[in-house]
């Protein structure tokens, strides 16, 4: 799991710096805290991690931690948001592992999201492996609803469109949870499974 942590956190921290500029020292501290938190998630699970564990691993002071995050839950939320801000980015550019700069439809959009989550697999698996997974899934579904709201304009006869959107967001998020423990499938294959299921 740890193999992809540093690379992906570098992407996320760089992305955060572009959208929310901070000085180099703040950015370095935030990166150290995220790295420490991700390592600890894979080692001992969310419920067993203390603030002291995080600041010891990140080699920072307690006051420095609290200048960035109020609680461990706040840190988890920030990590989830940073993952999703990157995965759900509307900027259509060619990237190292994939090129969806010309994405045209919902299938392309969902596949693009999965590529980003696959890049983050090491710590997504860590988050999902404990009770912190509930926070991740709730945040994920919130972002997915926005995607499906833009794309679903009509539901089958007799079904409220709000219900269709909610079911799609829920079912796709659970598809991703399943995929994280059955990782031998490509993003295209997983979206294909989902598409055939809802078809």
Extended strand count:
0
In the CATH hierarchy, what is the class of the largest domain?
Mainly Alpha
Distance between the termini: 34 Å
Tell me the Rg in angstroms.
Answer: 18 Å
Let me know the CATH homologous superfamily of the largest domain: Tetracycline Repressor, domain 2
What level of helicity do the residues show? over 70%
What CATH calls the topology of the largest domain is: Tetracycline Repressor, domain 2
Class derived from helix and strand content: mainly alpha
Order of helices and strands: HHHHHHHHHH
Number of DSSP helical runs: 10
Task: Output mean pLDDT.
Answer: 82
Total domains: 2
Work out the oligomeric state of the chains in this entry.
Answer: single chain
CATH architectural category of the largest domain: Orthogonal Bundle
Largest sheet: none
Concise account of the structure shown:
The chain has 199 residues and is mostly helical. It is 70% helix and 0% strand.
Give a description of the structure.
- It is built from 10 helices and no strands.
- The chain has 2 domains: 2-71, Homeodomain-like (Arc Repressor Mutant, subunit A, Orthogonal Bundle); 106-198, Tetracycline Repressor, domain 2.
- It is an all-alpha fold and 199 residues long.
């Amino acid at each position: 799991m740890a193999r992809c942590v540093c690379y992906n956190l570098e992407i996320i921290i760089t992305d955060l710096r572009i959208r929310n500029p901070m000085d180099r020292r703040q950015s370095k501290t935030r990166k150290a805290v995220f790295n420490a938190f991700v390592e600890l998630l894979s080692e001992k699970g969310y419920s067993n991690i203390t603030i002291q564990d995080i600041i010891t691993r990140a080699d920072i002071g307690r006051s420095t931690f609290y200048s960035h995050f109020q609680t461990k839950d706040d840190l988890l939320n920030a990590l989830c948001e940073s993952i999703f801000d990157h995965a759900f980015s509307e900027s259509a550019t060619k990237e190292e592992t994939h090129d969806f700069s010309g994405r045209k439809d919902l299938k392309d959009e969902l596949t693009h999201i999965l590529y980003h989550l696959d890049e983050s697999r090491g710590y997504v698996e860590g988050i999902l492996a404990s009770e912190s997974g509930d926070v991740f899934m709730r945040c994920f579904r919130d972002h997915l609803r926005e995607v499906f709201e833009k794309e679903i304009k009509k539901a089958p006869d007799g079904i409220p469109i709000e219900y269709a959107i909610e079911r799609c967001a829920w079912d796709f998020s659970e598809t991703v949870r399943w995929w994280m423990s059955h990782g031998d499938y490509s993003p295209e294959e997983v979206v294909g499974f989902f598409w055939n299921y809802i078809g």
